[in-house]
Amino acid sequence: MILSDLLGSPVLTAEGERLGVVVDARFALDGPPEGMLAAARLHGLVVSPHAHGSFAGYERRDVDAPALIARFLRWRARGSVLVLWPDLASFTDDVIRLRAGATLYSPRFDSSEV
Question: Where residue 114 falls among pLDDT bands split at 50, 70, 90?
Fold first, then answer.
């Protein structure tokens, strides 16, 4: 599976309620660099109930310029959540389902938290 297969996919809770669509992905870099980069793994998916495209990083707290674009894209990102990879129960060609008890996180973070 490649990431573009997941982008735009509808996401349903374990109860079958529509949460939104996948608009972005978060990766974590693990271990020491092999060559030029450390090994990357998919940490989670950003799901939006409103938008159908990437927020270009503007959903993050430390991105605020240009101000008008940042304000608009943060408004557009309202209600978005980060779903961690272990909380995905299944994904098929047409829908992603969360496991029961899945925790939804804010996609916003400060660079000091990393």
Answer: very low
Q: Note the pTM of the prediction, 2 decimals.
A: 0.77
Beta-strand pair 81-84/104-105: antiparallel
DSSP secondary structure code for residue 99 in this structure: P
Q: Exposed (0-12), middle (13-18) or buried (19+): which is 26, by Cβ within 10 Å?
A: middle
| 3-108 CATH | 2.30.30.240
75 phi and psi, to 5 degrees? -60, -45
Can you give the residue ranges of every domain in the chain? 3-108
Whether 113 has a pLDDT exceeding 50, the answer reads no
Mean of per-residue pLDDT scores for the chain: 82
Maximum separation of any 2 CA atoms in the chain, in Å: 44
